[in-house]
Amino acid sequence: MLSLNGFEIEALRLSLKVxxxxxxxxxxxxxxxxxxxxRKHFPGKILLDGLVHLPLILPPVVIxxxxxxxxxxxxxIGKWLFDVFNISVAFTWRGAAISASVMxxxxxxxxxxxxLDAIDPKLENIGRTLGAGPFLVFLTVTLPxxxxxxxxxxxxxxxxxxxxxxxTITFVSNIPGATQTLPLALYNxxxxxxxxxxxxxxxxxxxxxxxSALIASELLARRLKK
Amino acid sequence: MLSLNGFEIEALRLSLKVxxxxxxxxxxxxxxxxxxxxRKHFPGKILLDGLVHLPLILPPVVIxxxxxxxxxxxxxIGKWLFDVFNISVAFTWRGAAISASVMxxxxxxxxxxxxLDAIDPKLENIGRTLGAGPFLVFLTVTLPxxxxxxxxxxxxxxxxxxxxxxxTITFVSNIPGATQTLPLALYNxxxxxxxxxxxxxxxxxxxxxxxSALIASELLARRLKK
Amino acid sequence: xxxxxxxxxNILRVKVKKRIGEFDLDVSFMARQGVTALFGxxxxxxxxxxxxxxxxxxxDWGRIEIDNRILCxxxxxxxxxxxxxxxxxVSQEGDLFPHLTVKGNIEFACRFGKGTGFHIxxxxxxxxxxxxxxxxxxxxxxxxGEKQRTAIARALLSHPRILVMDEPLASLDASHxxxxxxxxxxxxxxxxLPIIYVSHDMEEVVRLADTMVLLDQGKNxxxxxxxxxxxxxxxxxxxxxxxxxxxxxxxxxxxxEFFKLTQLSFFGGKLWIPFVDVPLGTETRMRVRARxxxxxxxxxxxxxxxxxxxxxxxxxxxxxxPQAELVLDLGALLIASVTKKSISNMKLEPGTKVYAMIKAAxxxxxxxxxxxxxxxxx
Amino acid sequence: xxxxxxxxxNILRVKVKKRIGEFDLDVSFMARQGVTALFGxxxxxxxxxxxxxxxxxxxDWGRIEIDNRILCxxxxxxxxxxxxxxxxxVSQEGDLFPHLTVKGNIEFACRFGKGTGFHIxxxxxxxxxxxxxxxxxxxxxxxxGEKQRTAIARALLSHPRILVMDEPLASLDASHxxxxxxxxxxxxxxxxLPIIYVSHDMEEVVRLADTMVLLDQGKNxxxxxxxxxxxxxxxxxxxxxxxxxxxxxxxxxxxxEFFKLTQLSFFGGKLWIPFVDVPLGTETRMRVRARxxxxxxxxxxxxxxxxxxxxxxxxxxxxxxPQAELVLDLGALLIASVTKKSISNMKLEPGTKVYAMIKAAxxxxxxxxxxxxxxxxx
Amino acid sequence: xxxxxEVIHVYSAASxxxxxxxxSRVGSTRGLPKCVGIHAASSALARQIIAGAPAxxxxxxxxxxxxxxxxxxLTRGLPKVFTRNKLVLITPLQSDFKFDFGESVGLAPLLxxxxxxxxxxxxxPAGRYARAALKKFGYWSAxxxxxxxxxxxxxxxxxxxxxxxxxxxxxxxxxxxxxxxRVVSSISQNSHPDIQYIATKIGKISQPIVDEYFKFxxxxxxxxxxxxxxxxxLK
Lengths: 226, 226, 378, 378, 235
Ligand SMILES: Nc1ncnc2c1ncn2[C@@H]1O[C@H](COP(=O)(O)OP(=O)(O)OP(=O)(O)O)[C@@H](O)[C@H]1O
Ligand SMILES: Nc1ncnc2c1ncn2[C@@H]1O[C@H](COP(=O)(O)OP(=O)(O)OP(=O)(O)O)[C@@H](O)[C@H]1O
Ligand SMILES: [Mg+2]
Ligand SMILES: [Mg+2]
What we know:
heteropentamer; A: mainly alpha; 11 helices; E: five-stranded mixed β-sheet; five-stranded mixed β-sheet; binds adenosine-5'-triphosphate; binds magnesium ion
């Protein structure tokens, strides 16, 4: 039962890679946006907030389609990326990571923002009076104090990325070895009469993967907790 | 542009109903689970934590299928529900609300847990010494202090429910007027060549819906903030 | 008066052990009606002990009783939760509910507090603590002292059977302090509310407390009546040398309305102090600081000192500094602190007859033990 | 000595207005080298003012200068952020970083503090504040006093050009207080570190401060040298009646190693006080509390009082209470507090020749103005 | 299209994913290049091809999407019918549901309060054919309200096999290997438009190996594999 075949290993490896990249991509941007939403007041704030939530509100297929329109080889940004940097994201695992990170983005932002809102500004102030500039205070006070939210956001994003399907299959297609992550492989198996057996194995694989991440995050959180 | 046709109004009405029910369903349960995860220590905790995250980890189709297995007419719980209460959830808007709330559940739990973790236990202790029992302290201290997380969780769940597609279409199908929420209608339109025009209208509708919820939650949060 | 309080009159009995981190608390004491002060330096375990009494933490071993009601007994596996203990608690940090206004914080206590029915009108408390203009404010907009005043009001209004206060006045200015202290005295005397009081301020302790529990590194190095503890030379390092003083039991024997003076009698003489408005015959205790006592070999004449009492030098305690302490016998025992030079000049030695001079002003209202002069209840 | 400090020697100049909620702050004062005390009752605006000085809040209008460096000027739109002000700050609540251990909190300051290069070795600070055994602990496991000690250490180690402390010692016990106070004095005297010091404790203020800013409902009702403020009868309601005292400029004129006494000379006489280890010729100020001064019509003989000085009654101030205050002229002015009865007994009136008696012990080290005796720097 | 040399990318309708594994395996034994099958909904595939997906051959279950791609000028050569399919009416194994598609009794009375499941007739070809058949025999208007529309044929199959629906209309190829449902009746191919899968070459520049592979896909060898999997022979 536990010996994996090549197809499963391939999907697992890819899912892991995509999820890790997705988290790495959305974490800094998510933190930045969460910080802006938590601390800044500007006219278009509610707009930005809405934009962040878009991937939740719209069905994944629509997001996938939008990504295809924007980042596909013929897409506005995709074309530019290809012409200037010779990078192509569409139909590659990079695209899968992007779509996963886009889908996970609102979860990341919300979690981090919640933690940022809970930080007592007095502590940051004290950091300033001790001689650390805004950026250093950010690094040494704000960031560590927001750790629970960052961990929570990262684990949510990771789990969401492991499970991401709709946007991915729409944006980067279902290319074995390139974009066929666990959920997409699962989808394929479900299309085959009698594929349920194999599907179950993939479900268990997904769960093991996410559970490991959960345990890791719990341990990390416990270490960080005074 | 802004005058809606009957089909759109129907989908909008249904989406709103489903999302509101989804939030109402997942909020109390989500709070309970978040509270247990934040405050209690027991052997199977990581298991429960994992279970909560399942809807994120697995592709929505799988969750939809699991719901069908559990809550369908022939499902373990579904059969019992039907026999005892004569309630059928499959292929009804109730089922859509359930699948939306299941999908939104991990988001709800994470957000609330984050807020619960940030509560200073000293305040609850003080409440106890002032004569309020554990339950009263919970109502008058813990609950209001967790408000940011509850609001955040509710808005995430609402947005997620508005956007829920995969599990819904698998569990309750796409029955116009009964289970065809905005994303399902959207999906339909996207499957037809040239349906993008109509899809765009629905996208805008979804965004307006979610943005209103966002604004409402922001206002609420601001009022609650000292 | 008994140095070990009689058993039946004990309000609070505590015998507990608790280990937190590397800190060991091992305390056993009894407190009677009135105010019991917990005194000890930073980190000596005062807050730890308070948490055990209020039920916010569970002792590793021990037993706590109030009014013969068992709050906690590890042997019998009894543990009353905090809300069942009817203890009004003011914590060291105040800890106001941030989601409630000042009014909300106070009302919280009124709503849920279910003590013996001991009741102070909310209006009176608000007025006393000067909270009227703060009622609508949120805790994060209050100044340090305002927060603490709200916390005190909240505890007072929870209908407690006993009040437990962890350094409640530390962040208050002298003016608010002196407004609130008489009120705490009233709680103690009129409402007969027993109070456990943590404080660093010896003046406060002497003014308020009957019993004193001296904590040192988690152990109660001494427990007893305040006068007893204060006059024990071996406890000076803990009670503070500059506070060396003696406590004498006195009775109010005369009132001089014109000069606004009150006369106290004790076994050994009479003393004038600034006027205190209490009935004749009231028994109380008086604290005289050693450095406020002057000596003369002859009876001084034409001085501003009202109180001149004949006495005999009983003992001379010298240390390293310029000062020495003399124990004088004038019926009661009185401690005087004088320079070694004076001892040499005056050729003082045990047995020397002297006159002890105590300025009336030296015994201010604040330095009177048992506060605003009350009848002893035993 | 000038009652208005000379302009060029001002370290700190503040002239600000700020409205928070319904509270209006409108303060203007200057402070010289040394310690400037902010004194005022709860809610008078001390913390609000401190926040403006440290740069944690922005004044609605005004100008703040330290060492002729503009920290803030609303007219010129200058506003230096807190980290550029090199101000070591101890806040009223301590506010330790919960994610760092005691060691981490202290090292934070060492790492980022970039003041004038003023430097105290970390080891010395840890030892002084008794933090050695706490270094590995997290803030939420510290007692109230331990937290505050860590916060003080942190501020000291941030290499500040000026130290701003908001009631830093309120939660410390007498023993820790008396350990830390001399160190603050050393900062002031040896390191020439100017200090802004908020405190409720008049003893502390008199011991440490040169300048005092009296705040009342957001306005500075008086600013000036401590001695001046303390002796102003109109400010008694704010400074506290029982603290009536006079401050006299003195010079150390003799040391008696055997009896451990120090002699101070002033224009009008000589005084013995408990030994203070400073060179002869050191100039300083001495505070004598009114209630520690006794009067006699004849020169008393054979008493324990070392200091007997001939004086003339200059003025008698009577109030409602039993006490009256006498201003005595003995070269310098000295305030004595005696009962009205004594005035009547002794038939005192302006012009009466008397002997003022001051016990050596009454002038303890703590009551010495300008702290541990130092040479004035102007 | 600039696809990686020696690998052919075939974008095909999801319902072909099973059989495609077999076909590509046979292809490689014939010395043909490696073939990667990419399976999703025809709509998604069409859009991806338009967005520049590295497709060499597109097999759509729906001629409209083929036309859509052709109109963008992305195809080469004429579209060819790849294979055909037919519809069957199915019911759960344990059910005793009986119905001969074409009976005049009507379907609705037999369903009573139960459900008939088909793929969504709004956009899924299988659903469209099923609706056409139901209309043709005049069942539609009566049964309309008992119809559960699902995302694809597989979902319809799942509902019937779990007995959530009493009946379903799916492709014959889908039930070929399934033992969890019972075929009640086959549906006459005259009652709906011909069910065709259309194959088209993608890309403007002619590539010999793609042409070769395309030819292979239309060969009789592949046709027999398809028939083996329950597909209908070409007319
Ligand atoms: N969670 C903990 N882990 C380790 N040590 C602790 C913990 N909590 C308290 N201590 C230690 O126990 C000792 C007693 O603390 P406690 O708070 O009772 O002191 P305290 O007498 O109230 O002091 P203060 O007057 O400063 O408030 C201190 O040395 C403190 O550091
Ligand atoms: N955000 C705010 N909104 C309204 N009023 C405020 C706010 N912050 C402070 N105040 C008021 O301003 C006044 C001055 O507060 P401040 O904290 O400066 O007092 P303080 O002198 O430091 O008192 P304490 O000795 O009690 O700490 C207080 O009456 C306080 O209630
Ligand atoms: Mg404490
Ligand atoms: Mg303050």
